[in-house]
Amino acid sequence: MRWLVLGLVACDTSDETTYEQYNADGDSVTVSVGVVELLPAVTTALHSSTGEVEVGSASIDPGGGPIGSTHTVLVSLIADFVADVDRVSIRTDSGDRGEDEYDLEPDSTGTGIYKRELVTVGEEGETRDDVLTFRLWTAVEADSAE
Hints:
- The chain has no helices and twelve strands.
- The protein is mainly β and 146 residues long.
- It has a single domain, classed as Immunoglobulin-like, CATH 2.60.40.
- Strands 1, 4, 5, 7, 10 and 11 form a six-stranded antiparallel sheet that branches.
- β4 and β5 form a beta hairpin.
- The radius of gyration is 16 Å and the shape is elongated.
- The termini are far apart.
């Protein structure tokens, strides 16, 4: 495991909800892990599934740092697209350490802001570049057999 999630994980009692990815597959940033100093935040625009329309932005602050650094992950959707997105997650790819995916928590205002804090983990002296991919999801209604 390369990232430690801070916060509580909510239990979803609805096993019937399915989701489709709303944004482009390549909406990602690279975070340097195991470097000596904290690095400036990294940001990226989030795009529609075709990559042609900007639907929001995402950032990770700091954009790198020593093992054990706490990183704030923030996604902000453009108002026109808030109603289209039901869930936001981030996939972490740490090379040989593997991949994980974490849901972000929506802001209570319903304004399309999602946030989570992640803590990097690793061995002393380890350095690597992790790729973090932002994934926006829209709920899909289940087909009913009639």
